[in-house]
Design brief:
Blueprint: E1 5-12, E2 15-22, E3 35-40, H1 53-64, E4 67-72, H2 88-104, E5 110-115, H3 117-128, E6 137-141, E7 160-165, H4 173-182, E8 187-192, H5 203-212
Parallel strand pairs: 3-4, 3-5, 5-6, 6-7, 7-8
Antiparallel strand pairs: 1-2, 2-4
Helix pairs in contact: 1-5, 2-3
Length: 214
């Protein structure tokens, strides 16, 4: 039997949010998830959706590691209602999606993950959370260092896992290494040999790295 996949609409702060929930396992629908994970997609004004190929690989890697994964479209993307809100509204969309996921799987630990703009959203959400509401980790893939506002990272002690391409044009590796070195623990940087920001030529490697993260 195939794994369970559910298309749904969530109640968001600007209207309904289109989402996709997938349980772990590629060939069985009875595998019990070990954690819940929310994956945030890249910039909505540059073609980012929950079906982005990097987002898909992140989600698939997490499922292989035993997570039930929720992806969603920010406001104004595809069937999600509303319009782009300069990162502030998109963070609130992610908060609403996370609330749904945690209510549905209240006993599971949870992870926040995201790619590019989505990595920023996931980190902002996690680092601003109350101590009792923090995730077990954040997986930030393709973090765009070209955006200089990183005040939300100051003093953040949620475990942060950065996964970066060797040739990321929006987050050059030397810049990211400098940034990560200045962050408080716990933190980790995983580098993937790839051609660009979108992990061209290395999507399978990216997926395997995500699946191997603990």
């Amino acid at each position: 039997m195939p794994r369970r996949i559910e298309s749904l609409f969530l109640s968001g702060p600007a209207g309904r949010l289109e989402a996709l929930l997938e349980e772990p396992g590629e060939s069985s629908d009875d595998a019990e998830p070990r954690e819940a994970a929310l994956v945030c997609h890249p910039h909505p004004q540059h073609g980012g959706t929950m079906h982005n190929k990097v987002v898909y690989r992140i989600a698939r890697g997490l499922r292989k590691a035993g997570a039930v994964v929720l992806r969603f479209n920010y406001r104004g993307v595809n069937l999600s209602e509303g319009e782009y809100a300069h990162g502030e509204g998109e963070t609130e969309d992610a908060r609403a999606a996370l609330a749904y996921l945690r209510a549905r799987y209240p006993k599971l630990p949870f992870t926040l993950a995201g790619f590019s703009f989505g990595a920023r959203i996931a980190l902002r959400l996690a680092c601003a959370a109350a101590e009792s509401e923090k995730p077990r980790r954040v997986i930030a893939v393709g973090f765009p260092t070209v955006f200089r506002d990183r005040s939300y990272l100051e003093g953040c002690t949620v475990p942060r896992l950065f996964v970066q391409s060797t040739n990321d044009q929006y987050g050059p590796l030397p810049d990211l290494e400098t940034m990560v070195s200045a962050l408080p623990e716990p933190k980790r940087l995983v580098v993937v040999e790839a051609r660009d920001h979108f992990f061209s030529g290395a999507l399978e490697v990216l997926e395997a790295e995500i699946a191997a993260l603990t």
